[in-house]
Design goal:
Nuclear Transport Factor 2, Chain: A; single chain; 32% helix; globular; alpha+beta; 4 helices; two-stranded antiparallel ribbon; 185 residues
């Protein structure tokens, strides 16, 4: 239920932002530098709050987070779409209406994206877990339009990503407030 509520809130935020701020393409100005630690085992940055929250997670949640973090590192950060075969179920369910469902479809789509965008980049800002679900809040910078992204993954009992939802929100160049789309000081 929590996952559905988060998804609905983010979807509503995206719709409101789209209508209120038609100009997008800000580079990320994350004000999180005061609160970051470098996780050298995954080459990703995590917050000190995330380290604290690990103590409250079940072993399954810790394992599920590691699966998704490794998926990001091996596929998106390494720009190696074929590595997805190690993380996704063959009948992986894709809820993004712009991407076909299935593991092979995702591999094909991201192979093309990586070829067409050699500077493709994604930066994990936070990861949350709730049982079988892993939520990733990330930043994807680009020259034309940077995005704040929330991905929701369902991990099955075999330790594979079985299902995915996402919300992608362009970052406005002139936001209506001084809050970032990632962290507040």
């Amino acid at each position: 239920m929590l996952i559905l509520q988060i998804f609905l809130i983010l979807t509503l935020t995206t719709v409101i932002t789209t209508f209120l701020s038609p100009v997008y393409s800000q580079g990320a100005s994350n004000n999180a530098s005061d609160n970051k630690l470098q996780d050298n085992s995954t080459n990703t940055t995590v917050t000190s709050a995330a380290v604290q929250n690990n103590q409250d997670k079940s072993q399954k949640e810790i394992s599920n987070e590691k699966i998704v973090r490794n998926f990001y590192n091996d596929v998106f950060i390494a720009k190696n779409a074929s590595a997805a075969i190690n993380y996704l179920e063959p009948n992986y369910i894709q809820h993004n209406p712009n991407v076909p469902t299935g593991r092979e479809a995702l591999i094909n789509v991201f192979t093309k994206i990586f070829q067409q965008n050699p500077n493709f980049n994604t930066q994990i800002q936070r990861i949350y877990t709730d049982g079988d679900y892993v939520i990733v809040h990330s930043f994807s910078p680009s020259k034309s339009s940077s995005n704040a992204i929330v991905d929701i993954y369902r991990i099955n009992d075999n330790g594979k990503i079985a299902e995915h939802w996402d919300v992608i929100q362009p970052i406005p160049t002139k936001p209506a407030n001084n809050n970032t789309m990632f962290y507040l000081k």
